[in-house]
Amino acid sequence: MTQSVESTAKVHYICQTYLEQKTGRDGQASLKIGKQFQYSTAAEAQNRAEREAQSQDCAGADAYMISEDPNSGEVGSPSFLVRLGNVPEFDDY
């Protein structure tokens, strides 16, 4: 009996928030990751990002999806659903 191996990618929907922190003597602000939430749908992640971005202590929020190969564990680049407020450049990600 042969067993077929499924290699369908698993999709993760993430909401990630950012906080501003002052660094160095010049007091220049930088961003650091605040909270991360994982959801089962894109709409849930996007709704949470929109709510979090309105929070007073939140500098910005992303909602994105990533694909994971369950066999190798490799994760692809994020595909952004929404980017709100002060968020890092994609190259900084």
Describe this structure in words.
The protein has 93 residues and is mainly β. It has one domain (10-84). It is built from 1 helix and 4 strands. The protein has one helix at residues 42-53, and strands at 10-23, 28-39, 60-68, 79-85. The protein has a 4-stranded antiparallel sheet, covered by helices on one side.
Features:
93 residues, mainly beta, four-stranded antiparallel beta sheet, 1 helix, disordered N terminus
Number of domains: 1
Q: What ranges have pLDDT less than 50 throughout 5 or more consecutive residues?
A: 1-5
Our estimate of the beta-strand percent is over 45%
Termini gap: 45 Å
Query: What is the strand arrangement across the widest sheet?
Result: 2-1-3-4
Helix content: 10-25%
The major β-sheet equals:
4 strands, antiparallel
Order of helices and strands: EEHEE
Shape: globular
Tally the helices. Answer: 1
Topology:
Layout: E1 10-23, E2 28-39, H1 42-53, E3 60-68, E4 79-85
Antiparallel strand pairs: 1-2, 1-3, 3-4
In short:
The protein is 13% helix and 45% strand. The protein has 93 residues and is mainly beta. Strand 1 and strand 2 (28-39) form a beta hairpin.
